[in-house]
Amino acid sequence: QVQLVESGGGLVQTGGSLRLSCAASGRTFSNSAMGWFRQAPGKERDFVAAITWSGGNTYYADSVKGRFIISRDNAKNTVSLQMNSLKPEDTAVYYCAAGRGVSYYYFSYQYDYWGQGTQVTVSS
């Protein structure tokens, strides 16, 4: 069992930066792939970024590649998402997710545990 709590969301102007954090509890965190997804009003939940359990591989949606960086610290049971050069279209609720045995990191059904989400709003 893994419990996830996101933090770090807020309001930022276009071009600004935010750093989201996800604190995980549970013995299986270090064995779990971690992902960030986002959902804008009236839209589906979309993949943003993912990182393997070792941190050796990362994956990004094309829309955030080069602007966002995902990282993890297994000693602290945290995963972070550094978001730079933010755009209004990045506005959404951002969710942290954890999964074991993830093969297709882009698909939300691969993840077993989800946080409650944190709101990110980018003003133009």
General description of the model:
The protein has 124 residues and is mainly β. The protein contains no helices and eleven strands. The strands form two sheets. Strands 2, 4, 5, 6, 9, 10 and 11 form a seven-stranded mixed β-sheet that branches. The chain is globular, with a radius of gyration of 13 Å. The termini are far apart. The model has no long low-confidence stretch (mean pLDDT 94).
What is this entry, summarized?
The protein has strands at 3-7, 10-13, 18-25, 33-39, 45-51, 58-60, 68-73, 78-83, 92-99, 113-114, 118-123. With 124 residues, it is an all-beta fold.
Task: Name some characteristics of this structure.
124 residues, mainly beta, 7-stranded mixed beta sheet, globular
Described by the principal axes of the CA atoms, the overall outline is: globular
Structural class: mainly beta
Average pLDDT, rounded to a whole number, is: 94
End-to-end distance: 40 Å
Total helices: the number is 0
